[in-house]
UniProtKB/TrEMBL annotation:
Pathway entry: Amino-acid biosynthesis; L-methionine biosynthesis via salvage pathway; S-methyl-5-thio-alpha-D-ribose 1-phosphate from S-methyl-5'-thioadenosine (hydrolase route): step 1/2
Keywords: Amino-acid biosynthesis, Hydrolase, Methionine biosynthesis
Domain of life where this protein originates: Bacteria
The EC number(s) this enzyme carries: 3.2.2.9
InterPro entries, sorted: MTA_SAH_Nsdase, Nucleoside_phosphorylase_d, Nucleoside_phosphorylase_sf
Pfam families, alphabetized: PNP_UDP_1
Name recorded for this polypeptide: adenosylhomocysteine nucleosidase
Nucleoside phosphorylase domain mapped to chain residues: 2-224
Record organism: Deinococcus carri
Gene3D superfamilies for this protein: Nucleoside phosphorylase domain
Entry annotated with the keyword Amino-acid biosynthesis: yes
Amino acid sequence: MLAIMGAMDEEIELLLADLGDRETMEHPGVTLYRGVLDGVPVLLTRGGIGKVNAALTATHLLMAGATRVIFTGVAGGVHPELRVGDIVVSTDLVQHDVDVTALGYALGTIPSEAPAWPADEHLRAAALDAAAEVEGVRVLEGRVASGDQFIASREGVQRLWTQFGAACAEMEGAAVAQVCAKAGVPFVVIRSVSDTADHDANVDYRTFMPLVARHAKQVVRGMLARLGAPARA
Ligand code: ADE
């Protein structure tokens, strides 16, 4: 079953509104919706903000039968060419707030874990194909950096760019990636840029987030058409 996850209501409400045959499943701290979107059986959920919420929700999705996971939402642009509204499709994901350097591990690396989690190639290709249909925006493939921080300074952007080569900053993707990787479940993260993570990020985020969330949603809809033959879901 294909699972679609966002962090906030704005990131999933447009999909939830169109979910047919909706069934609600309550789990501790997580509400999952099962139904049919554009003819494709899906699980849909709002996971909440931050890595812990994301990991909890991803775990419940997998336990409910998710075999592919798409994360949709907004992010702060880090790549210098990104502007508000643009779309990032994840190549891989890192946790930029992990620091075990005192024990000799590279910044972002959790001991005994991979330094980054690669997104699934098939899902990436479908996301890129679908994103190409969103008019007037740049689509970039790149590394998504996740951490329990809202990045809102030039220094913060610079750090993620130079130390991680990140295309964008958000707060959930790499946690979902870590959970999915442990279970061998393919995933991809699609983010539209709500701000450029600099000193205006808080204002831009509030202004543009509900608008640009539509771009990521459009990509998900396009992916359903490409991936979602019910027999393969
Ligand atoms: N999500 C959207 N904008 C963000 C930012 N600047 N930092 C972290 N997460 C975000």
